[in-house]
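Quick entry between incubations.
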Amino acid sequence: MRPKKRLGQHFLIDKNVVRKIISAASIEKGDCVIEVGPGTGVLTEALLEKGASVVAIEIDRELCRKLRERFEGAENLELMEGDALKKDFTSLSRRRGKKFKVVSNLPYNISGPILVKFMEERGAFSALTLMLQKEVAVRLVALPSTKDYGILSVFARAYAIVRREFDVSPNSFRPRPRVVSTVVSLDMLPKALVRPEDEGFFKKVVKSAFGKRRKTLFNALKSLNISNADMARALSLSGIDPERRGETLSVEEFIRLTEGFLFPAP
Ligand code: SAM
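Done. Structure below.
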């Protein structure tokens, strides 16, 4: 079968990498696992061998047919044909009465939107172990004041403990991708750092701070359409120097700043 580029089909052929992914995900018997894009089923097979109960979501009809043949009679596999971006992970997890671990060699074309979806539906997951393009992985784990630090790094840290596991060479896939891949783990925090009621505004603050990342916070945050007086008050309440750039703020500081904005006026 011809791999479909538009579906990000790069299949893992290196068994050692498969073993390392399963080990990074600490899969144990009885775990409920979501796999986005099982492809030909290399990771799926390793997950089932570990005793996990797997929900695999594959968009490619032809691959789904092959997967059904390959895993005929496998009781612990539920194969869903369709777009993972359209699945309701929250109800899937409620139905199982358990949080999912996600283990996936993600198709590059959907890595951004699926990461956002995982964060939005984070209550459905205990941990994510994901193969990503190195460039995206580096942004996810980046620290303040580095060039890769941005919206993705801040949001990930608000909800999870993020770890870079290992890099994977293009030679481990068929067809070979043009770029190096990286496996990352996100252990979801039982309680997000940001309060649920502050979340909407927190996102706006982070987005506007990075919207103009070369400007001072005071100038960058003007896109929030808040008066200079209220802005000065929020920055002073949170103890953050208005002359700093947004890209130097840690997630904790972004949260303090959000709380400063939302603190009731005297
Ligand atoms: N897990 C396999 C492996 O490691 O060899 C395949 C990984 S390949 C990088 C990505 C897989 O995701 C492909 O099988 C592709 O068809 C599938 N895929 C692409 N877009 C998808 C989507 N929106 N929903 C579900 N699966 C998708």
